[in-house]
Amino acid sequence: MLLSWHHTFLVSLLLLGSSLAYPLEENDQGDDTVKRFDEYQVLRVSPGKLGMKVLSDLEQYHSLGIDFWGEPLGNKSVDICVPPGSIPVVEKLLNDTSSPYEVLIQNVQSLIDREAAENDAVDDRKRRATADGSRVNTADKYLRYGEINDWLQNVANLYPHLAKLITIGASYELRPMKVLKLGKPKAHTPYKPSIWIDAGIHGREWIGPSTVLYIIHQLISEQSRDPMVSFLMDEFDWYFLPVVNPDGYEYSHTRDRLWRKTRSRYYRNSNCIGVDANRNFDFSWGKCADDTLFSRCSSTDPCENTYQGPHAFSEAETKAMGKFIYLRRNLFKLYLSFHSYSQLWLTNWGHTQDSPPDSNDIMSLARYGADMLKKKHGTTFKVGSPASILYSAAGASFDWAKGVAKIKYAYTLELRDTGRFGFILPPNQILPVGEEVWGAVKSIAARIYHEVRDAKDMFYTV
Ligand SMILES: [Zn+2]
Fold this sequence. Notes:
Layout: H1 2-17, E1 41-45, H2 48-59, E2 67-68, E3 78-82, H3 87-96, E4 101-105, H4 108-129, H5 145-158, E5 163-170, E6 176-182, E7 194-199, H6 207-222, H7 227-235, E8 237-241, H8 246-254, H9 316-327, E9 332-340, E10 344-346, H10 359-377, E11 382-384, H11 386-389, H12 397-403, E12 409-415, H13 430-454
Parallel strand pairs: 7-8, 7-9, 9-12, 10-11
Antiparallel strand pairs: 1-3, 1-4, 2-3, 5-6, 6-8, 10-12
Helix pairs in contact: 1-2, 6-13, 7-13, 10-13
Bound molecules: zinc ion (ZN).
Signal peptide: 1-21
Protein name: Carboxypeptidase B-like
Active site: 414
C-alpha cells in the first residue's frame, strides 16, 4: 500500500517537474552572477525508512533543487536545503509520510550575508592594525586560496629549517596544489614517521582549511616554547594539504557559497560540472552495497553532488594527492581529513559495514581523540564508521588511505557544528575549532609515537 503510494507520488513528481518554478538545476550558471539563496530553508527531517527512501529519490529530481547538507545519521535525521519554490512539495511529502521535521535555517542567504560581513570586517580591522597589510591573520577570517598559498610560502620563507613548501600538482583549472612539510631534521635518518592532514576536498566546507592553518601555526609557534610540541616536531614529519580542491573552494568564494564538487567538465552536452572528490579515490570506487538507501554513497549521475567521476582518480586533484601519499606510504602513521559539518570522528570503513581487523586500535585512538577534543571547549564528537552511524560512502579518501596506502590510522573528521549554521560557520568559530582540533591532534600524535616506538619500527625506507 505504502510502496504503491510511493510509486504514485514519484510519478506525479515527474509530471510536476516541468511546471515547477525552478528550471532544471544547472551546475554552470554560464555568466558571472553570484548564486543567491534567498528564502532557501534548511530542514532537519526525521524521515523513518520509507521517508528516507523517498527523500533519497527526491534528490534525483534535479528540478526540485534539493541539496543534502549535514551527514544523514542513519535513518534518524537528515538536513536538506530546499529552494522556496520546492518547499510546499517537500512539506507535503514529509507530512504524507509522517516524517517529522523542523526548520533549522530560515533563510540561507541571510547567513551567507552575515558571514561575508564578518569576514570583511576582519579585513578592515587588519588594515587598520597593519599599515602595509602584509600580516594575514588565519584565525580570524576565511582566506581565499591565493591568501592561503601566500601564507604557506611565508611560513616556508621564515622557517626554512623547519618548513618546506612542495607543489604536488595542479587542479583542473591549473591552480597549483601546495603541501607544507614541517619537522625538525633528525640525525642519522632522513626518514621520520609522518602525519598527513588535509582539508577542503569539498569546496564549501571552509572551516577545514582554516583548521589546518591553525595547526600549522601552533606547530611553528609552540615548538620553541612547549616541550611536547618540540618533541612532536622532532619525532614526526608533518604534511599538510589545506585545500585538496582549490577550484571548488574558490568557486564557493566567488560564485556559489554552497559548491561542493571539483570544477571538471566531462560531458559536452551537459550543464552539470564537477566530481565529488571524496567519491573519486581508487579504493572500492563506485562499489555501494545493494541495500544502500542513499544515493550519497556514490552516484553515477554527473548532476548529483556525490558524482563519483567517470573513473577512479579521474580528478587531477585526487590523483596528485594519491600519488604523493602513495610514494611515501611507508612513512605515514596517521591520515586525517577535515570536513564539515556534524561533529563526527569517522573510522574505517566508509564503503562497507565490515570492520578492519585492527578496528579495536582504531576505535580506541578515535575515542581518545574525541575525548581530548572535548576537553578544550566541551564540544562532543560522535565516533564510529560512516556505514554504522551515517550511510555508506565509496571511494572516500580515508578508505583509500587505509586500504591502499595501508596507513593504520585513517580518519575523517566532520568538524563543527551540528546544524545551526552548517557550512556557513561564522568566522568567530575559526579559533575555538582550531584550538579543540589541535588539542586532539597533538594528543593522538603522541600516542602514535609510543606505539611506533614500542613496535621498534623506527627505521624506514621509501
Ligand atoms: Zn565534506
